[in-house]
Amino acid sequence: MLKSEINTEAVRKEIGAAARKHFHKRNIDVFFEHGQWWIIPPSGAAYSVNDSVTNGVPGFSFEQVSEGNDERP
Q1: Which pLDDT score is estimated for 54?
Q2: Which residues of 20-41 are buried (b: 16+ CB within 10 A; e: fewer)?
Q3: Helix (H), strand (E) at residue 51
Q4: Closest of 68, 69, 29 to residue 49, by C-alpha
Q5: Residue-number span of the structural domain to which 24 is assigned
Q6: Which of 15, 44, 49, 54 has the fewest CB neighbours in a 10 Å radius?
Q7: Has residue 61 been placed in a domain?
Q8: Residue 9 within any structural domain of the chain
């Protein structure tokens, strides 16, 4: 099972930290729905969370699935 498919508080915290670092924003909503994690940064756009590896380090990537308002993430 991929980490992005595991519904635990520990994974939610990891995803939240990765999203804050990626988007350089706070107040990012992190939630589990339909068997996977999703985030919504202050822009209001929705992103699915995916497992990824960068330079051999496991982590998460974020795929935008809907538009937000005019604020950029």
Answers
A1: 85
A2: bebbeeeebebebeeeebbbbb
A3: strand 46-54
A4: 29
A5: 3-66
A6: 54
A7: yes
A8: yes
Sheet holding 36-40, edge to edge: 29-33, 36-40, 46-54, 57-66
Looking at the 3D structure of the chain, how many domains does it have?
1
Residue in the structure block whose two tokens are 């994690």: 37
Neighbours of 46 (CB within 10 A): 17
Per-residue pLDDT of the chain (73 residues; tens, 9 = 90+): 899 999 999 999 999 999 999 999 999 999 999 999 999 999 899 999 999 988 878 899 999 999 987 555 4
Is the Cβ–Cβ distance between 4 and 49 less than 8 Å? yes
- Residue 73, domain member (yes or no): no
Q: For residue 54, list its beta bridge partners.
A: 57
* 41 lies in some domain: yes
Is residue 37 classed as helix, strand or coil in its secondary structure?
strand
Amino acid letter, residue 65: V
